[in-house]
Amino acid sequence: MAIITRKKASKKPRAPFSQRTWSIGFFSLAVLIYIFYTYILPHTPDGFQSQIQTWFPPSALNEALVWVIAALGLNIVVGYAGLLDLGFVAFWAIGGYTAGWFMSGFFNQWNFHFGSESAKVIPGIHLSFWLVLVIGALICAFFGIVIGAPTLRLKSDYLAIVTLGFGEIIPQIFVNGENIHGFNLSNGTKGISPVDSIGIFGKRLGPFDLNYKYMIFVAMAAFMVFISLRLRSGRLGRAWLAIREDELAASMMGVPLMKTKLAAYAVGAISGGLAGVAYATHVNGIFAERFQFSISIILLAMVVLGGMGNVWGVMVGALLIAWVNSTGLPAFGNEINSTFNTNINFPSYTFLIFGALLILMMLFRREGILPESRLKLLMHENDDESGNEQPHDEISEEEDL
Amino acid sequence: MALDSAPVLEAKNISVEFGGLKAVDDVSFAIPDRSVVSLIGPNGAGKTTFFNVLTGLYKPTSGFVTYDNEDITGLVPHKIAERGVARTFQNIRLFGLMTAEENVMVAMHSHLKAGIIGTIVGTPKQRSEEREARAEAQALLNFVGIGKTAKEFARNLSYGDQRRLEVARALALRPKVLLLDEPTAGMNPQESAVFVDFVYKVRDEKNIAILLIEHDMSVVMKVSERITVLDRGTKIAEGSPAEIKSNPRVIEAYLGKSAEVH
Which long-range contacts (CB under 8 A, 24 or more apart) does A123-127 make? Predict the structure, then answer.
């Protein structure tokens, strides 16, 4: 029998900054940005103001925050539990339509107001934004469980295909949901617009009250971060990670696989729903053709690029990619075009650039921008100890007979 | 001796077929409470298959398994684990990117009660439960002798420590029976000798029964109170180490028929 003596230089799992430092940093930055846009920007010279409007418009910031909320949810499914989900856009769409149904004049055959700041004479269902958030989250959690229950028994590759199908079916239902046995569910491609403004402390925010919305979205993102971190450190988070590491061993240690995976799905779906409701209020309407497959992929890229499993990494990844998509690339393109007198349509190359970026990341920094410390360890283990064989590979496995 | 006590885990007339192939054929086997028993046999004898039936990974084609006089045949693995059947793996299956402490705490999953809401809110109950679980994990790590590694990733531990961590993790289920699948694989003779004492320490201090699958005959003979021999899916012998050593069928199974001729 081989004599194996093996001592590895022990690497202590220690993040460069603690969660507390990150949380404080996040809040300070959020408040600073708010102060900047609300109080400082209006008093700056016009040239500077227009630069900011070109490169960092407040609406792009708000949209990026919506992406952050959704990406944090996907991080629970993909980053924590290790379940590949290619159809996350479905939850976003369901959340969006929840807002469309419950806070607009769309269902004008009914007239029901509750907690909403909109005028009582307008027909339709008008609920408070906060209540709709809860409803959207609950509906998405329900759909997360419904889609998860039959599919989570599948192995990861098959699961990815099924979620892909789910992500295609739900938006298609909304695109074609104009006439379901005479019932208009989604208004088809025309979409539902406008959506009620957010009411806060008896005040009605107009569609251009971006600063208020910014604070609300920040609070929602913070809520998701909080949930992620709390769950991660507890009983459920450990079970998620165990499943990600070794599903069979986890079940042998008394972790119920289905229940635990479903919980990840449901919590992830909740954040998709929150993002959907937020998105509806952000664009002041809900339009079926926006919920494309690419949204699922972009969200996945945010999680992977940012650093799977680390909420702060995912947040940075989401902000960065959302900004590049919405503002960075077009603004950069205009700059190039006006400098070199060219006429290149940069935004049309989004996915080309995006793809190249992803390939580069995977080549040089597989673990993401801000990786979870444990993932970094995995990715770089072979770099410095390429000569050190894993001992358990040496032991021949007895066939399962 | 512990062999007289009532069986804690008992398999009756277990058969497992894969397609037409009988991997295990009508094997009955009991693990008396607080005993140390072994299952041996040449490669492909059906030991691991039998093990997998006990832990719920495979459903037997016929026969049944009882635990504490309760039928547990065909229950899903986590239900069986929850009741108190713990195991380690032949090729170590730790959660490599989790710390030693987290590894042990995963196995406490079924004992902990915190739900989603309780965890998010961080109720006093949840917090004290976590504290106790952490203390229990540390105690278990100390028990198996790797208390200092609590905050290290499992994959960074030395091979012997990984084996110990697997035992600590299994014990976190608070089992009545512990199944060890080739626990000394990859150990040198000195480590194996230490391991024999360790098995008795676990048995005596945790008051549990232990079943080993083992290749290393010197370990098996030293540690077992009773040995069962499987060959090609059937039970060919059962008895004390001395009886097994002199059993002609066992010798034949291990060395082949020609061994007798020479």
Answer: A125/A101, A126/A102, A126/A196, A127/A102, A127/A103
